Amino acid sequence: MHIPYYDLQQISASFEPQLSQRIQAVVAGGRYLHGEELAAFERDFARYVGARHCIGVANGLDALTLVLMAWKRLKGWGDGDEVCVPALTFVATAEAVNRAGLRPVFCDVGKDFVMTEQTLLPHLTPQTRAVIPVHLYGHPCPMDSINALARSRGIMVLEDAAQAHGASTGGHKTGSMGHAAAFSMYPGKNLGALGDGGCVTTDDEELAQTVRMFANYGAQQKYVHRVQGINSRLSEIQAAALNVKLPRLDADNARRRNVARFYNTHIVNPLVRLPYEGRVAQSVFHIYPVLCRRRDKLQQYLQERGIETLIHYPIPVHKQEAYAAYNAQSFPMAELVAREVLSLPITQFLTEEELHYIVSAVNAFR
Fold this sequence. Notes:
Blueprint: H1 8-13, H2 18-29, H3 36-49, E1 53-57, H4 60-75, E2 82-86, H5 92-99, E3 103-107, H6 117-120, E4 128-131, H7 143-153, E5 156-160, E6 168-169, E7 172-173, E8 180-184, E9 198-202, H8 205-215, E10 219-221, E11 224-225, H9 236-245, H10 249-266, E12 288-291, H11 295-304, H12 332-340, E13 341-344, H13 352-364
């Protein structure tokens, strides 16, 4: 048996024929940027998240960067002011800080692989302007305590929700719990486009207008450029694909939770540690991460049996060559996860036969 980690063709096929019909309508209509599909997506995704504004942009990195650029202008931040980010995340979280002319400061993560008030607090300084809690693997950060700490210090909160479309905690969806949020719609996400895509959500109208300006070459009026901006657009074709997929997001996330529940119930190998102490209610399981001290051997063992797995992520950001100035820093939990984490296949279309096969293989590993 061969079980791919994530079968994009199968995912796309499940939305046919509506997906192709919607895209063909865009092609026939001749409006490929800033049209009805983008307007519909921005309206519907803002409503889904529970935010007043949604701004479609080219990718998740741009979404993060644009919010920081906008805040830097609106709040008068200086070059090199600090933004706290977790050491365990995709590198884009830190790169956005650098792109905005700010300085990333890393912190460790807690047992659920995400930033907490306790891991964040020691790294806040008078120069800290913002924090970026990352809802890693689809599991929300403890936003109530992070927000309370940020309020007490006058610090802005930017959610990195790139892996957490539809996740919620405390009755609020990710994307609605900070001052702003950034999403990626990379094809492999729970809500994925057919190429790169992203968006910003916020309740702050001034921020929304400023993000739009920076994303449009720094212009709010054609050929009148108030600031030095960038070009970051969510195209009509990508918006059309997202409009087809969004109505099914909650149902697909529920199926992912069922897969996670199956793993939690049936994986009994003492060498393998399951995520979130068996809890499945909060995460949308963009990734199902297990920990194993013999991770590389386990991955090889599963590969030999036709089961594809991935590692998210083998090197924490502060140990990357691109961040050599930070290499001497130590964040024990982030480094442990990087050594031991393995992502098992998890999609809404895994069959019971495939799940039993995966579980049997994991349990047989010694």
